[in-house]
Amino acid sequence: MWITVAFICVALLALVLKYVFTSPGLNPFEVDSRQPLKPMVLNRKEKNKVLKQGFLASRVPEDLDAIVVGSGIGGLALAALLAKVGKKVLVLEQHDRAGGCCHTFTEQGFEFDVGIHYIGEMQSHKPYRCILDQITEGQLQWEPLENPFDHVVMGPPENRRCYPIYSGRTRFPEELKKCFPGEEKAIDQYMRLVKTTARSVWHMVLLKIFPAPLAKLLVYSGLLKSLSPFYKMAPHSLTEIASELTENKDLRAVFSYCFGTYGNMPKDSSFSMHSLLVNHYLNGAWYPKGGASEIAYHIIPVIEKAGGAVLVRAPVNRILFNDSKEACGVSVMKNQEEIHIRAPMVISNAGIFNTYQKLLPKELQATPAIQTQLSMMKHGDGGLSIFVGLNGTKEELGLKANNYWIFRENNLDELVENYAKAGREEASRKLPILFVASPSAKDPTWEERSPGKSTLSLVSFASYKWFEEWKDDKVTNRASEYKELKEAFIESALEVVLDVFPKVTRDKIEYIDAGTPITNTHYIAAPKGEIYGADHGLERFRPELGAILRPQTPLKNLYLTGQDVFVCGFAGALTGALTCASTILKRNLHLDAVALAKRTNYVDPKLKKE
Ligand SMILES: Cc1cc2nc3c(=O)[nH]c(=O)nc-3n(C[C@H](O)[C@H](O)[C@H](O)COP(=O)(O)OP(=O)(O)OC[C@H]3O[C@@H](n4cnc5c(N)ncnc54)[C@H](O)[C@@H]3O)c2cc1C
Ligand SMILES: *[C@@H]1O[C@H](CO)[C@@H](O)[C@H](O)[C@H]1NC(C)=O
Ligand SMILES: *[C@@H]1O[C@H](CO)[C@@H](O)[C@H](O)[C@H]1NC(C)=O
User: Fold this and answer.
1) pLDDT confidence bin for 605, thresholds 50/70/90
2) Mean local confidence (pLDDT), 134-145
3) Which residue minimizes the CA distance to atom 34 of ligand 1?
4) How far is the CA of 391 from the centre of ligand 3 (A)?
5) Does pLDDT of 609 surpass 70?
6) In angstroms, what is the span from residue 323 Cα to ligand 2's centroid?
7) Ligand 1 site residues, Cβ closer than 6 angstroms
8) Ligand 1: which atom is nearest the Cα of residue 531?
9) Measured from the CB, is residue 344 less than 6 Å from ligand 2?
10) Mean predicted lDDT score pLDDT of the chain
11) pLDDT tens per residue, range 73-98
12) Which of 43, 409, 503, 574 has its CA 20 to 30 A from that of 273?
């Protein structure tokens, strides 16, 4: 039996190597295209000239090579990768500015990010950093958070426990051991499991870029499950693993605390997904210098250089197909009129539900292959974001370049489950989890941009159905009941913040408002107010789904990019883009990025000092 297995493995390996090394396509990572650092542009009006180019038929370039629907990192990165091999790409965004979850907005003089608090793996020799440097010509800079970068806080005010989370492959477990004497073995085992599982995440990438029959063979022969630590651990929940490792409830919660970065309670989290996140931050966390808007601001010129464009206020209302059912363009809704734009290829960054359920003609939506994918996916949980503008510097307010994950107690599953089941009024009084960070404290340019001020960003989850009844109200003028419900959530979150951050007081608050799931629907087109797109529960990591949910959709010339095609998070959506570009350009760009990162292997002078 083992001889047969070995034979199949060798045959597969030969196929794989053939696929990997005979890359006919063009390589966007052929040359290092970083330019010397230009002076930063802090002026918002200047930046908006790039970020807010409104859609006009006259601004659509001729002879397009591709159209991308949505300008999140998944859409922009993909467009830039194609632009780097000379393709003319048009990116269309429904909101009034580019960036998706990376966009920022300003209220009463305070600039707020939407979906970027911290990103891992930005050391200068890492592939992710290399990819970002290449698609921004080296103009996007990353600022490290302090160490500890996260703080896990648990329990009621009278019995609050705080566990600092340090980065560093050895420091992370060492510091945990200081907090949990006697648990050394559990901590070491946890680390081993996390590392081996996360290290084989590229198996998920391969499933998506291999020819479909090969991917299916790997899945249905059982080879993948027996050979891949990632897929071996995928059906095991975080709760299951954490409870096997230790009896200590606080430690179990600390092992699980970052479930908030993908949104499923520990008993519905795949240990594989969790490992990705723990591993992602193991060598530290970074924030984009100048705030999240810098990301789109520096990618757009690369798209434009090849003749492409990024246009906003351009809601795509359907994808166009020709008689042979091949995608051949999109329709944009402008002043109740449809404007048709043609291109030989359409790539959607709008998420799987928007793409399949809103943008396809009914008869194509009914395609069995599409229905199968839809039946295996669920909408993810809704997000709740609270934005606070404060009078005072970070020193005055005691804010640092770090994050707090605050839990009511250590029974995370129960907390989340009860919250989701509760009625909305009751829920608003007992947030199970609250993420608190100060974006302004993370950004060294902040003081120059907004002297004497600070911001806080609070994030939690909320059910779409609590807010659904107001979804059709005008976004700037919703019913007073809606505002009252928001107030209730704000008030409970604020109580926690005022308690955990004693220097932040009510009189310092100049601005406070909340974004609910229906706010997400409006600004980032999340159909059910999802914070991280499609659900990341155990089902998402079934290898069967991994193999069919791929950049190439069942419809010719229509592709998917972004978080739904891989996993959520900035890096997850970026991997989605890289995987999609690999499919389109017919070469493994993951290897190309690694090769360039190795070749340049430059060292950031700031990192060298450490
Ligand atoms: C509150 C919050 C905090 C987060 N914090 C972090 C963090 O600290 N670190 C991290 O790594 N990740 C974080 N994330 C997750 C991360 O931001 C996302 O996973 C990632 O940016 C998603 O990128 P994307 O390109 O797939 O999708 P998106 O950024 O959602 O982009 C999709 C775009 O498509 C547009 N669109 C949809 N339909 C249409 C249409 N019909 N026509 C035109 N345009 C359309 C949308 O408007 C949107 O701009 C956070 C997310 C949120 C919401
Ligand atoms: C449909 O579009 C594709 C790609 O542009 C093209 O190759 C094909 O010939 C078209 N089919 C018809 C019937 O127009
Ligand atoms: C901010 O605080 C300072 C004192 O620290 C005060 O003089 C100023 O009026 C405050 N500004 C606002 C807008 O509240």
Assistant:
1) very low
2) 98
3) 70
4) 6
5) no
6) 7
7) 69-75, 92-95, 100-102, 115-119, 315-316, 349-350, 354, 383, 385, 459, 524-525, 531-532, 562-563, 568-573
8) 53
9) yes
10) 95
11) 999 999 999 999 999 999 999 999 99
12) 409
Go through the domains of the chain in sequence order and give each one's CATH number. 2-106+117-139+291-376+542-607 (3.50.50.60), 377-535 (no CATH)
Ligand nearest the Cα atom of residue 453: 3
Residue 137 makes CB contacts below 8 A (sequence gap 6+) with 33, 34, 35, 298, 301, 302
DSSP assignment of 529-572: -BSSSB--BGGGG-HHHHHHSSSB-SSTTEEE-SGGGS-SSHHH
Q: What does the pLDDT read at residue 25?
A: 80
Q: What is the pLDDT of residue 475?
A: 86
Confidence band of 607 (pLDDT split at 50, 70, 90): very low
Nearby residues of 208 by Cβ (< 8 Å), 6 or more positions away: 215, 546, 547, 549, 550, 551, 565, 566, 579, 583
| Ligand 2 neighbour 63 (Cβ under 6 A) | no
Q: Which residue has its alpha carbon closest to ligand 3 atom 14? A: 391
For ligand 1, atom 51, name the residue with the nearest CA.
Answer: 115
Provide CB contacts within 8 A for 410, sequence distance 6+: 154, 155, 249, 250, 252, 253
322 CB less than 6 Å from ligand 2?
yes
CA of 254 relative to ligand 1 center, distance in Å: 27
- Residue appearing with tokens 């991308």: 68
Under 8 Å between Cβ of 252 and 427: no
H helix or E strand, kind and range, residue 346: strand 346-348
Local structure of residue 145 (DSSP, 8 states): P
Q: How far is CA 449 from CA 42, 139, 417, 440, 522, in A?
A: 7, 19, 42, 10, 28
Which residues approach ligand 3 with their CB closer than 6 A? Answer: 391, 510
Residue 559 pairs with which residues in a beta bridge? 347, 552
pLDDT tens-digit readout, 403-430: 999 999 999 999 999 999 999 999 999 9
Place of tokens 């918002």: 44
DSSP 427-448: HHH--SEEEEE-HHHH-TTHHH
Task: Report DSSP state, residue 463.
Answer: -
The answer to pTM > 0.85 is yes
Per-residue pLDDT tens digits for 546-593 = 999 999 999 999 999 999 999 999 999 999 999 999 999 999 999 999
Total Cβ atoms within 10 A of residue 182:
10
Give the pLDDT band of residue 477 (cuts 50, 70, 90): confident
Q: Which residue has its alpha carbon closest to ligand 2 atom 2? A: 326
Q: Starting from the CA of residue 357, give the closest ligand.
A: 1
| Residue 108 Ramachandran class (φ > 0 left, ψ -120 to 50 alpha, else beta) | left
- The residue length of the chain stands at 610
